[in-house]
Amino acid sequence: MQFRPIPSDPGASLLVLAHDPAIIEAARVAATRLPGGPPHLVDSGREALRHLFSMGETARQLVCEPSAAGESWPALRATAADPFAAAGVVVVGEGDDAFPGLADDSSLPEALTAALREVAGLRERSPDAGPEDLAIGLARGEITVRYQPVVRIADRRPVLLEGLARWHRRNDPPVGPDHFVPLAERSGQAQALAMAVSAAAFAELSAAPARIGAALSLNLPLAVLLERDVLGWMRRLMRHAGFPLSALTLELTETTPVRDRPALRRALWRLQRAGVPVLIDDMGLEEDRAALLELPFAGIKLDRHLVAAMPWQRRARAEVERLTARAHARRMSVTAEGISDAQLWRAVAAAGVDNAQGYAVSRPLPAAALPAWGMAWRGGLHRQRYPG
Q1: What is the per-residue pLDDT across 10-44, written as a single tens digit (0 to 9) for each?
Q2: Of the candidates 57, 64, 205, 229, which lies 20 to 30 Å from 23 by C-alpha distance?
Q3: How many helices (H) and strands (E) does the chain have?
């Protein structure tokens, strides 16, 4: 049985943050020539950030006059210009950030339309990469990390930042993780990828403000998690970056079935004794996956497809309640992935789930945008969505 979520209304696809009437009018004209409906005007950089932090799967673009963004401009630009995001930014105005060809007001609507199309095109994914390309990318330092916050449902406090690998090729469009992560495992480069992601994340989140009071969670495939030296090389990378071991959590990915449970149990005990909790990622209906609840994991993360079906399917709700009860009986935390709206938030809260992760909380963000997200979340972003 497959659980399929019902899509929600994506809303306006073009945001406009500007004070100049000519820019606002040009954006209105450009929107009539592009899919997505009329533009949505925002009054401040903080409001624009709130939209971009939690946007849905539909692409959303931003036309921005930097002077209108104020102090939010650095975080806003880092968020909207992220090449791994579904959003694109077109800067209109003076300075090095301005998109070429947008200074002449007389041709602004045409230039803005072309710029928005070009920015959207820059976000096309290129899956044409093989093992040799990945090896070159690793050597060049092309692997980067984006961070998706996880918040506690009871008090909405951030508890984790899941580090997600991204591959930004030097001369080609980005490659999606659904392609290059399995490629790394098939080609024997899983450890090299894990080390690249860990080094980047430790360096970016070594400063406490970037962690916004949350621990870092990194994904590891089974083969890497079982290595006896996994803690050794992680500790070396942490010492080099000044990242505290106490702020680290690991997640076991679902890519490889567990055939040697005693070996996994020993690895979990080694990590637990060192103070590193390990979560089971993407827990769904598979019985072999559910059997892992008997091992000393610190928590589970519920599969997003199972979670998305909860408002519509009684069986999905029953399965989430059953998995949550089993995990809590073993003193494990439960995180629901794929929380995209208030309805799903309420559904998992009613089932007893501890934490929420998904676009309703935040999309994956560059490290530079995390403090601004933390301020927006503490400042009432969650109360606007979940008044109860």
Answers
A1: 445 788 998 888 888 888 888 888 777 788 888 88
A2: 57
A3: 18, 12
Q: How far apart are CA 99 and CA 77, in angstroms?
A: 13
Q: Which amino acid is at 371?
A: P
* 3-class SS of residue 258: coil
Torsion of CA 162, 165, 170, 171, to 10 degrees: -110
What six digits make up the tokens of 277?
A: 């909790």
Burial class (CB in 10 A: 0-12, 13-18, 19+), 55: buried
Structure tokens at 327: 């995990």
Burial 141-155 (b: 16+ CB within 10 A, else e): ebbbbbbbbbbbbee
Query: If you search the block for the tokens 């679902």, which residue do you land on?
Result: 254
Tokens, residue 111: 């230039």
CA distance 355 to 324: 11
For the stretch 126-173, pLDDT in tens is: 557 899 999 999 999 999 999 999 999 999 999 999 999 999 888 777
**Cβ neighbours of residue 110 closer than 8 Å, sequence gap 6 or more:** none
Question: Residue 40 in 3-state DSSP?
Answer: strand
Q: Concatenated DSSP letters for 157-202? A: -EEEEEEEEEE--SSS--B-HHHHHHHHHHTT-HHHHHHHHHHHHH
Q: What amino acid is encoded at 306 in this protein?
A: L
Q: In what order do the strands lie in the sheet with 61-64?
A: 40-41, 14-17, 61-64, 88-91
The Cα-based distances of 77 to 49, 61, 148, 190, 375 in angstroms read: 9, 12, 18, 32, 16
Query: Long-range contacts made by residues 201-208, C-beta under 8 angstroms, separation at least 24?
Result: 201/145, 201/147, 201/163, 202/237, 202/238, 202/240, 202/241, 202/243, 203/241, 203/243, 204/145, 204/367, 205/147, 205/161, 205/243, 205/247, 205/367, 206/241, 206/242, 206/243
What's the pLDDT tens digit per position in 173-188? 788 888 899 999 999 9
Q: Which two tokens stand for residue 200?
A: 């980047």
The token pair that represents 341 in the structure block:
């709206």
Q: 14 has which bridge partners?
A: 61
CA-closest candidate to residue 237, choices 282, 261, 206: 206
- Bridge-based pairing of strands 61-64 and 299-302 is unpaired
Please give the C-alpha separations between residue 65 and each of 72, 73, 90, 100, 163, in angstroms, as whole numbers: 12, 9, 9, 14, 31
Q: Answer for the pair 127, 179: CB distance below 8 angstroms, yes or no.
A: yes
